[in-house]
Each structure stands twice: as structure tokens, then as C-alpha cells.
Amino acid sequence: MYGFIWRRLPGGTAARLVVFLLLIGIAAGLLWYVVFPWLAPRVPVDQPW
């Protein structure tokens, strides 16, 4: 999967690295600020059995 993404990115190695890190940062931010807050009330992690 990462190889597929790496081959599809434009530019040389340095430009690819910057774009790849930017994509990882966007994905992490989306998970941290959108997906996890939406999911937290729906997952009973802190409730005792």
C-alpha cells in the first residue's frame, strides 16, 4: 500500500517525502479531531462489566 502511494506521488524523493509526511499528518489530524471524538461515546471502554 505504501509503495503504491509512493509511486503515485509527483516529484523527486524530497518532494515525495514532504507530500507523504503531509498526507500522514492530515490523516492523523482527521482521526484525532473528527473520528475519535465521534467514536468515543459509542465505544464502552470505561464501563465496568
TrEMBL record:
Domain of life: Bacteria
Organism lineage string: Bacteria, Bacillati, Actinomycetota, Actinomycetes, Streptosporangiales
Protein name (record): Uncharacterized protein
Keywords attached to this entry: Membrane, Transmembrane, Transmembrane helix
Record carries keyword Membrane: yes
Residue ranges of the TM segments: 17-40
